[in-house]
């Protein structure tokens, strides 16, 4: 019987976080400890290192995952341990887990097996409170907006055109569509509203894209909250609370330092989902790592069609980051799924189906090539993989000239990715032609079409009438020069969750667009993707418990 | 021009919290630091001191306050500094501020002037995340409940008889009455719901009344969430998530140590409002202080009709605490208000009106006498008080044989309450006849009548038909032997906010009752009291800001 992630994490020998900080080159005076094994890191660390040259930036992405995930975080965490094992100074920048999936299907999310970040329980629960600060900041805006409507509505806000929603860091489907302000007049103005999960909020996006506290304040001020009765936009700044919002975020803006099971430094900061948001940890965490380490490994959520595309088109452009190499994680299990094997049968050997599913891997490789970046395929080994399957995949990679490495970090920790790390040390020295896929100057439709063709393999994009009207209106307001943040199901290259492999000649449908003016992008919602998940029949919460001594079970 | 509370707090010379802990006798191994000036304190501190004798317990209460407050926290904080100045080992146990009032009317709440708790900004914002943990725990229950309705409803919950509400730590009136689950079937089951402010939630109440993490888990399991189609109660335990809820609260259950401006130790933990909840900090914080210090000062919210009554009838009974003395805080301003002076005119000298308003003070003194406790009146001096007014009040106290002291802690810190502290040192040595007002065995109506007559001066209690039906139903379920937690406006002894002084022969109306089975009391809502406040026309949030260096303004 294997140990659970939680059991392995609980056996870890953690070093005091002050020691980890020392290893990373962060002076103790720049720390704000949260207990002995977590700490906030002052933004001065980055400021004081401005003149220093950046380390090499490695992105970890994946193919379209099964619902268990491809092990991107696991690979990322194992990689930093591997780099340190081969004597290189490396750090990781990761996203913070959301409580929604923790209580929902997934349980904890901080790597897995012997490639984890610890303290696992804290990271998965409240951590240092960043998510809660975002929730508070967001809902302060909503409360002030509805209060404005109630107290005379000086800004003449059209109550039926409020676009800013409330949030909770919870999977809670009944909050998707609500009516607020029912009852007597003292209960405020009645209107339709809805809740989004915190990680899909624009506050989360601006936290992750901000360069400083003042930049954060300015971006929050620019967030569109509603239109007035004349159809003109109303912003957070118009409500007069951008300062209060920035104040609420004063600690949340500082990256969090923790460690891997092998005691290497990790910054975990910000956690937008990659299906319904831009899917990357904060710019501040990535940039801080780049000043502190020679090799920085980071991940972007889900497959290269989602996280990597947004990392390369949105985050790197916005923050002027120059990525040096990409790791594309694939599992035998997911490849079999893309070869049409049912989820229940993924544990059974099926070389043929796996080879058929390699079309999905090939498509994501194409995507990375389109961005002009060197890559290596990491086969993330599962205990259920057979030798025949692994060998067949290795052969497939060789035959198609794809650099490849077998990653065994789940079972072996850093040792399991030494070969991968060695390959990356060479790969990052290659000159590369990284360039975002589209120019910001292109039209909204052209930008979306470029993404859909290049990264999904679609032949065309269909717009609902609502979406068409929105594009016309946004263009009128001059918002068409922003980046695009696609919202799409993660399991398929298409906008239909059930379609596997690498289909061609399909059309994706844009249902709705939402301007995120503080973040600097337009969210394009495809198919039926939701910004507030629901809980499964038996939520993960039902297996969780804690005993008298504070020992947690069931959080895995 | 006076300095603001925030300016005074920002000038404070804070000691490292490890030094404050040492002063309090808490070993460093029992701390979990949050930065350098805040720390969680392990529950082992209390456990390891079980055999030690308790210190003396002093409750600070007040008359019915003006909307600016009577300065109870200020007096409480000043008192601990005064006790330390006269060489006594003293500690304070206080409630945590809620973000609702911080962004609403009141601004920050951690004492005032030179009697404050610091770091003021952190305490008033996210502090150590306790409020956020309560919000999460509460909303996890709601999400799982609605998920249960959606996923087949095995427990046969009647969707129109769900009694457990969602919460946010925000003043947000439009959330009082909402409809959730609108839209397609995938959005869950449509039903009426509402949000309560976090500090009025039962999770907050059980946190404040729990004796241990296991007690907390058990109490959460006993919380009533709904009735099934047969009218039988459904509890959190039936949803199978009491363990997950306790896990969410694993850090929140530990008291927080901070310091006064004069570097004396303060535990701040739990913060139920006293108008709509039971109004006292956690039992664990109070009991920990009693083991560490010889004199423990604590406060209960609003006037003696609300906070003190619940402290003495609910908290002390439940936790088996023996209070030794009571401080009744009065201000000249509030007394004038009770003498029918308008809020705008309170700064103008008016001895006659003040003496007329002393009937309110007299009533609260009677209440404390009814509990069998010795007391001292603390006149909390304001800069606008005139000498004639102060002397007239002193004379009134002397003439009526009420022990009294002029407290100048706002202007002078601990020095301003040395006389009060000296009086208390003698007072706590008196034998007292403390006894809760009512027996738990009495009927719900009898218990409410006892409180209304003794503490409010009412002659009778009127019940709406809804309330009558609830009492019958609760009695049938055997819930009539619980304590009563009155919810009432704080500004008046009656259930009408505008009635000042000490009226007689009035009737209060009980509109609705809510069973808090985990907390162990029935909440009785009088008049039109709301469990979700609203924001004022110009919220305090609008004056708040933060600069590049993290300096906060407008939080006062």
Description:
The first copy, chain A, is built from 20 helices and 25 strands. The mean pLDDT of chain A is 96. The two termini of chain A are 15 Å apart. In chain A, α14 packs across α15. The first copy, chain A, folds into three domains: 5-125 and 253-429, Rossmann fold (3-Layer(aba) Sandwich); 130-249, Domain 2, N(10)-formyltetrahydrofolate synthetase (2-Layer Sandwich), CATH 3.30.1510; 444-525, Formyltetrahydrofolate synthetase, domain 3 (Roll), CATH 3.10.410. With 556 residues, the first copy, chain A, is of the alpha/beta class. In chain A, β18 (375-380), α16 and β19 form a beta-alpha-beta unit. At the A-B interface, α7, β9, β10, α9 and α11 of A face α7, β9, β10, α9 and α11 of B.
Which tags fit this structure?
3 domains, Rossmann fold, 4-stranded mixed beta sheet, 12-stranded mixed beta sheet, 556 residues, Formyltetrahydrofolate synthetase, domain 3, homodimer, 20 helices, alpha/beta, 25 strands, Domain 2, N(10)-formyltetrahydrofolate synthetase
